[in-house]
């Protein structure tokens, strides 16, 4: 087994980097969705949601950078074109969403997709003894589960 400069199996880290690029593409689409609903939200919940969506897209932007830097740390190149993101993303596209409940639903549906990808990465990074990726996924999952719970509460839904 060949090890890279951070002591991980190079074959396993290449596979993890590919999966992280898949997550990156989905996060970029999620980020764009958040920007769009932040700009376009209308209605009586505007003031609260406008601020909340900005908080979420700022956090998503930070996570995009963390994911890209982890890919680089593993010795791969992060995706960086919208063409690549569109081709690889599974997160739903939120075009012209301005109604509050549809915007919040878009967030829940997007985070649900991200959580599936992150849970898969959590398992694979554990198998590869990649504590850096594993810890990142664990932190992302914890935060996003709470956000899903809060958004579903806003929608008067249960988990």
What structural keywords apply?
0% strand, single chain, mainly alpha, Ferritin, 159 residues, 5 helices
Rg over alpha carbons: 17 Å
CATH domain fold name: Ferritin
Structural domain tally:
1
The ordered H/E elements are: HHHHH
Helical element count? 5
Report the sheet-strand fraction: under 5%
Q: Can you summarize this structure?
A:
By secondary structure, the protein is an all-alpha fold. It has helices at 10-40, 46-73, 82-88, 100-127, 131-154. The radius of gyration is 17 Å and the shape is elongated.
Element layout with pairings:
Layout (H helix, E strand, L loop, with lengths): L9 H31 L5 H28 L8 H7 L11 H28 L3 H24 L5
Helix pairs in contact: 1-2, 1-3, 1-4, 4-5
Organism: Pseudotamlana haliotis
InterPro entries: DPS_DNA-bd, DPS_DNA-bd_CS, Ferritin-like, Ferritin-like_SF, Ferritin_DPS_dom
GO molecular function: ferric iron binding; oxidoreductase activity, acting on metal ions
Describe the structure.
With 159 residues, this protein is mostly helical. The protein has a single domain, classed as Ferritin, CATH 1.20.1260. It is 74% helix and 0% strand. It contains five helices and no strands. Helix 1 (10-40) packs across helix 3 (82-88). The longest helix is centred in the N-terminal third of the chain and has 31 residues, at 10-40. It is elongated and about 60 Å long. It starts with 9 loop residues before the first helix and ends in a 5-residue tail after the last helix.
């Amino acid at each position: 087994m060949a090890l890279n400069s951070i002591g991980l199996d190079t074959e396993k880290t290449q596979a993890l980097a590919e999966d992280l690029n898949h997550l990156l593409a989905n996060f970029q689409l999620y980020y764009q969705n958040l920007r769009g609903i932040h700009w376009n939200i209308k209605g009586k919940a505007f003031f609260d949601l406008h601020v909340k969506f900005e908080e979420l897209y700022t956090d998503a932007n930070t996570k995009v950078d963390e994911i890209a830097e982890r890919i680089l740390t593993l010795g791969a190149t992060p995706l960086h074109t919208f063409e690549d993101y569109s081709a690889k993303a599974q997160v739903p596209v939120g075009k012209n969403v301005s109604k509050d409940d549809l915007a919040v639903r878009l967030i829940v549906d997007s985070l649900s997709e991200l959580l599936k990808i992150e849970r898969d990465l959590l398992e694979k990074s554990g198998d590869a003894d990649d504590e850096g990726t594993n810890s990142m996924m664990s932190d992302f999952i914890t935060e996003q589960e709470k956000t899903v719970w809060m958004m579903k509460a806003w929608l008067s839904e249960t988990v």
